Amino acid sequence: MPCVELHPLTTQHLAAVVRLDQLCFGGLWTQEGYQREVTSPNSDLLMLQRSLSSTSDDDPSDPTLIGVACCWAILDEAHITLLGIHPRYQRQGLGQAALLTLLSLARQRGLQWATLEVRDSNQAARSLYAQYDFQDVGRRRRYYADTGEDALILWCKNLQTDEFGDRLQQRWQQVHQRLQKHDWQLTSSLGAIAPFLPKPSRS
């Protein structure tokens, strides 16, 4: 089963993440912008990377860095600024894994709520966030400069409650089932999600 590794982004992957940004967001952040996030103590900037053993030998264009996600810690708030998966690997549970990781890291930081902006027309993203307890609380008019489209402001509250922790556990179980359905095994060095990762099987 191919592995996908979820780790903090490092400087050696800056060029690759800018290429992924262009595919997912149309060039939202520059390489310098990502560099600032790598070194910021208030930013969790993550990458999803296919392990070398799962790369395709017959398709040199197949990327290894296939996802990026970022969250800023601002006072008691987790502001999710990026969440993108390479178009070739969407709808396989990888975006959900990245979102759950950001929420798990926010809990570890002691943050109380999470917020993000999403395009009004992005029904797939809106449906995803609704599944994870994000609620529509407002609108930013003409927020996206490329189209003049509005952004919806979504909030997820009570991150530190036991009830939210229980929901995280349930969501992680669902995501692992979906990843397995698409033949992915998720690994990570992040302590915040260690309790949610499947235990390695013993031969």
Give me the secondary-structure topology.
Blueprint: E1 3-8, H1 14-25, H2 31-39, E2 43-50, E3 65-74, E4 77-85, H3 94-108, E5 113-119, H4 123-131, E6 135-140, E7 151-156, H5 162-181, E8 185-188
Parallel strand pairs: 1-8, 4-5
Antiparallel strand pairs: 1-2, 2-3, 3-4, 5-7, 6-7
Level-1 CATH class name: Alpha Beta
Residue ranges: pLDDT <50 for 5 or more in a row?
54-58
**Can you count the helices?**
5
Q: What structural category characterises the helix and strand content?
A: alpha+beta
Distance between the termini: 15 Å
Helix content: 25-40%
Description:
The protein has a single domain, classed as Aminopeptidase. 32% of the residues lie in helices and 28% in strands. Strands 6-7-5-4-3-2-1-8 form an eight-stranded mixed sheet, sandwiched between helices. Strand 3 and strand 4 form a beta hairpin. Helix 3 packs antiparallel against helix 5. The chain is globular.
